[in-house]
Write a structure and sequence with these properties.
The chain folds into 2 domains: 8-54, no CATH class; 62-178, Jelly Rolls (Sandwich). The strands form 4 sheets. Strands 9, 12, 13, 15, 16 and 17 form a 6-stranded antiparallel sheet that branches. The protein is built from no helices and 17 strands. 0% of the residues lie in helices and 52% in strands.
Length: 189
């Protein structure tokens, strides 16, 4: 549902603004979401505005996991379909639980060319969530995006990953697919 409110940008032109703020001093960024002006809109994602888009229909891009699962790893490729030239933002959500380790525990996830990691030393169990995003321009009607997720000193049976198309050309998508961690035979869990 659209809500009309007053927001501020850092330029005189909505198409060149870098972000949306809630105050005139430009110290408090507005929440992530969609903002429009003059029949055009832009998505603010992680505090930055994505490219301007004229109001149009919802994206029709799809995402599917391809290939077999690899034992004890989350390592998959995803085919994203769409239109040549689409600007696509995808997000991987990698979750799990570290086990107690005096050697340290860590988790790493890479989607496309974006990597995010976390590590810690502690006693007891601790949950983690990593959410890297990867933005690319479609080259043709389909494109493969690789994902690799690895944990050290963690309960691998409690890890999971989901890959989501966040937006296409600034329009929210929400299409998503779960990843897999191969079982001992390499098949899906």
């Amino acid at each position: 549902m659209a809500v009309s409110s007053t927001y501020y940008i850092d330029t005189a032109d909505f198409s060149t603004a870098t972000a949306v703020w809630t105050d005139t001093a430009l110290t408090t960024k507005a929440p992530d979401g969609y903002y429009s002006f003059g029949g055009n809109y832009r998505q603010q994602f992680e505090g930055s505005l994505l490219p301007i888009t004229s109001c149009a229909g919802a994206p029709t891009n799809t995402i599917v996991r391809i290939g077999d699962c690899i034992p004890n790893q989350i390592n998959s490729s995803y085919t994203i379909t769409g239109t040549d030239g689409d600007v696509v933002v995808v997000k991987a959500t990698f979750t799990g639980q570290f086990t107690a380790s005096s050697n340290g525990s860590s988790a790493v996830v890479t989607i496309g060319t974006t990597t995010q990691s976390t590590s810690c030393y502690y006693s007891g169990n601790q949950s983690f969530t990593l959410n890297p995003t990867y933005t690319f321009t479609m080259s043709g009607a389909s494109q493969n995006v690789d994902l690799a997720a690895v944990v050290y000193e963690a309960d691998e049976t409690l890890t999971s990953v989901t890959v989501e198309i966040v937006s296409v050309n600034g329009i929210a998508s929400g299409a998503s697919v779960s990843g897999c961690r191969g079982d001992s035979t390499g098949g899906p869990c």
